[in-house]
Amino acid sequence: MDYQYVIYEKEGNIVRLILNRPEKLNAFDFPRQGGLLDDFYAALAEAEDDDEVKVIVIKGAGRAFCAGHDLNTVGYVYGMGTGKPDERRASQRARLNVDRNWIWNHHLRLFYCPKVTIAQVHGYCIGEGLMLVEECDLAVAAEDAQIGHTEQRLGFAGSGVSTMLHLMLQVGMKRARELLLTGRLLSGTEAADIGLVNKAVPADRLEEEVETLAKAICLLPADGIAIGKAFTHLAYDSLGLTSSFIQGYIGHTLFTNLRWEPEEYSFFKERRDKGTRLSFHGRDARYTGLV
Questions:
Q1: Which among 147, 157, 181, 150 is positioned nearest to 284, based on CA atoms?
Q2: Which end of the chain has fewer beta carbons closer than 10 Å to its terminal beta carbon, N or C?
Q3: pLDDT digits (tens, 9 = 90+) for 39-51
């Protein structure tokens, strides 16, 4: 299939899914239908259904792997900060329905993909981008990549999808809490040091390293990979990781219903009054010198 926002490349047993919205740093346009979100998961399904495919490499076009969600549109689905005269707060059932479909039907699919998945990380890897990395089997990053959950500064404070047990299992509870409560960015090198990615390499060697790793995995028999992934899924379930996706969507819904006190920074109010760019920079400028 041809996709507008994803480049689908197949070479032997390897498929590369290239996020292709470089003018937006490959930010996902959730929840708009027909955008990068839909294209990515349709392409993932195509690769899953191809019996020849053993490894799926996920990468980004342009200057970034994925900069998270498009802050121009995030929150509107819940009725947050539209500025319209007839704006009405979304019901709890509407919020829960959106988040359940997004997290359960999308994130869980990548996490339980039957092929071996490798994230090839360069440039910015933030929020939704980092969630993709956390849900892949393996990840290799450029040493100068910028990786973090800065979306937590919107007010999540550790709630939502990013608190899943698998993040804590990857980097440890205390470190996971630090990353979620501060939203600070890590270099690719630091991400490798704490186990968030498998390896960090110079940017000019990133493609080569991922290619070598993918080819090594392809030496395994297709049935062996399928059985190995199925057993991995059993291990995930025994650790409670499936239930963590349920916790994640409920936590996300609770976040969308926050009440900000007068002295607190509401990105959605600032975006309504000042526009996306100024409100985004204003959000992060407050952390200068602190983290």
A1: 150
A2: N
A3: 999 999 999 999 9
Our measurement of the distance from residue 274's CA atom to the centroid of its chain's CA atoms, rounded to an integer in Å, reads 27
Q: Is the pLDDT of residue 34 over 90?
A: no
Which ranges of the chain does DSSP label H, i.e. alpha helix? 36-49, 92-99, 108-111, 128-135, 165-171, 173-182, 188-193, 206-217, 222-238, 241-255, 267-274, 276-285
Residue 210 corresponds to which tokens in the numbers above?
A: 């991922």
Instruction: Give the percent of the chain with pLDDT over 70.
Output: 93
CA–CA gap between residue 185 and residue 196 (Å, rounded):
12
Asked if 163 and 205 count as a contact pair (C-beta separation under 8 A), the reply is no
Report d(CA 66, CA 44) in Å as an integer: 16
Residue 106: which pLDDT band, with cuts at 50, 70 and 90?
confident
Rounded CA separation 104/109 (Å): 8
Q: Rounded distance, CA 4 to CA 79, Å?
A: 28
Task: Write the pLDDT tens digit of every residue in 70-97.
Answer: 888 787 777 676 666 666 778 888 888 8
The structure tokens 């200068």 sit at 288
Domains in the chain with CATH codes = 6-285 (3.90.226.10)
Confidence of residue 108 (pLDDT cuts 50, 70, 90): confident
For 113-127, write each residue's pLDDT tens digit.
999 999 999 999 999
Side chain identity at residue 102, one-letter code = W
Which residues have a Cβ under 8 Å from the Cβ of 168 and sit 6 or more positions away? 176
DSSP 140-176: EEETT-EEE-GGGGGTTTT-SGGG-HHHHHHH-HHHH
First CA to last CA distance, the chain: 44
Rounded CA separation 82/84 (Å): 5
143: Cα separation from own chain's centroid: 19
CA distance 59 to 216: 18
